[in-house]
Amino acid sequence: MMGMARKLGQIEATALAYVQMRNLRSVKTGDLVAALRITSKQERELLSRMARAGMIANVRKGLYLFPTKLPLGGIWTPDEAIAINALMADKQARYQITGPNAFNRYGYDEQIPSRIYIYNDAISGERAVGRIELTLIKVNQGRLGGTEQIETASGEAIVYSSRVRTLVDAVYDWSRFDSLPRAYDWIRTDIDASRITTADLAKTTIRYGNLGTIRRIGALMEQINIGEPVLKRLQRSLTPSSAKIPFLPDRPARGRLMKRWGVVIND
Fold this sequence. Notes:
The chain has about 270 residues and is an alpha+beta fold. It has helices spanning about 1-5, 10-20, 35, 40-50, 80-90, 100-105, 165-170, 175, 180-190, 200-210, 210-225, 230-235, and strands at about 25-30, 55-60, 65, 95, 115-120, 125-130, 130-140, 145-150, 155-160, 245, 255-260, 265. A four-stranded mixed sheet has the order 4-5-7-6. A three-stranded antiparallel sheet has the order 1-3-2, with helices on both faces. Strand 2 and strand 3 (about 65) form a beta hairpin.
């Protein structure tokens, strides 16, 4: 810490040493007052100053992440797993990473998103933890699930939508993720390559989709000649309706009608 003390103010160096010595990952307002023998006002100013300097990361007002070791140059940001898990734990929320991040993870899209898209059951809106930019999408608890855990280089577990759940999300949340018609090609390719099964796709669609998602995926599966048992399973989950919906929602509903699904093939 001696070399660090020459670069940092004494109180910043002492705060880092205290947190590191106790193997703390996060600090809340009030945690350092007695340990550093400072006032509450001094603590607030210290934490705010360290966050502005990039030494620590602000999760939300009054909650900060500290590095296990401050890098050379004195600038640190948590990795995505540490940032997300800290925010979700603070809110006691369930979550899963979805959308463009999952598209990239499973090889559907080569573009690396600048933001992380997260379904969760607690908060909505745009957030930043250090340099990690988050788009938080609050959903009801019934739409959470169909996940897999990934261990990151930092040793943290992070939760992603599974491959098949990602495909369902790409049809369900097409307007948010700009994922149609690409998602239909992803589904066709994954079925052809046996990366997913049609039974699992049908089950996941019924469990986490809505009526429009079920109808569109049903129409797609009929187009590629999926077996009748799977199609009947999807059809049984629908309520009778005379309304027609387009296969591609952002295009005019002109084309051949697949009566079984009430879907106009407008591609």
